[in-house]
Design a protein that fits this description.
It is built from 18 helices and no strands. By secondary structure, the protein is mostly helical. It starts with a helix and ends with a helix. The mean pLDDT is about 85.
Length: about 425
Amino acid sequence: MDPSPIDAERLRSLRRMKAVALALLVAAAVVYVITKIDGGEGWVGYVRAFSEAAMVGALADWFAVTALFRHPLRLPIPHTAIIPKRKDQIGRSLGEFVESNFLTQEVLGERLAHADIGRRLGVWLSEPDNAQRASEALGDALKGTLEVLDDKEVQHGLEGVVRRRISDTPAAPLFGKAIDLTIDGGHHQRLLDSVLVGLGGFLEDNRVTFRKRLDEESPWWVPEPIDDRVFEKIYTAVGSFIADVGNDPHHEVRGSVDTRVAALAERLKHDPEMLAKGEALKDELLDHPEFRAWIESLWLGTKRAMIDAADDPASELRVRAATSLQQLGTRLSADPALQDKVDDWVERAVGYVIDRYRSEVGDLIANTVERWDGESTAEKMELQVGRDLQFIRINGTLVGGLAGVAIHALSALL
């Protein structure tokens, strides 16, 4: 796999520093050869001592740096290639180090205490564009959550909730209270008006049918004109009665309806027989296949509507979410007490996560390192710190040379 641009740049930098360190070693070797051939003393001896000690220092530090990542000169020298051999222990130690020194409530709590998260969040959300982006993120989260939910499980849970709710609510008293509300609002009288109008229309539409039925029921010996008069009398009387009831808001029939409806409401609320019938009807309803079909359609319809709304920037859900978030941001940016609440909530939430899951982070680091092979681990770590380690070689060359000069000077004095 091709390295990332960052890793490629790190590799080029590492190679440059290796070349610099190697160039110093070669330069020291060349100087040593020249001064050795010259064989002179005086200042030449100091230069030779510098170059000789510089080579020793450079080679020693090259060995030390190389031994971290691989066998020097591919020779299986003991205690070399330390990182490939001990990568599992290094990964575990690194995980424990991060867990013990970074993922603690004290460290993160101190950092969060000065982060001013509540105010920053408020200022950010108060910008319309930011509130819109936040609502988009919420919409994506809602959509993703709904799409991964198991519809069967949700329907089963929803059915259980609805079933328990309905089962715990006595049916008959509920209908009784509904009738009481209907009476209080006079709705039953308006219903009676509608029934009377419909009944009048029904009589008018079926006039011929009723007349024919009278012919069938009337004795054969009754003259037809008499049947006509009887029919007209009855038909007119019924029509007039319906009209009278409809036109008179204080008609005795309306009072009778009030009395009977109120009595029905009381029976529904208190009569054991009506209570039992209501429960039986409720149980029959809950066991009906159409009830489950209704629950299924309820959930699927709601889910589809919420997904469409979450995915549509112009939907009322998204628009209201953006507006609410902006209003929250405006209030949060100007309310220190609310900012303190948000800061406290964030600190407690982070503390909760740290207490329960910080070991997971350590295990993640350790397990990730364990899955790497030794050479890959060495290469990754060398890319990260190898460039800086080359300064050890450079410093070793210079410090070694200076140490050689000091030793040569001390020898000359003695």
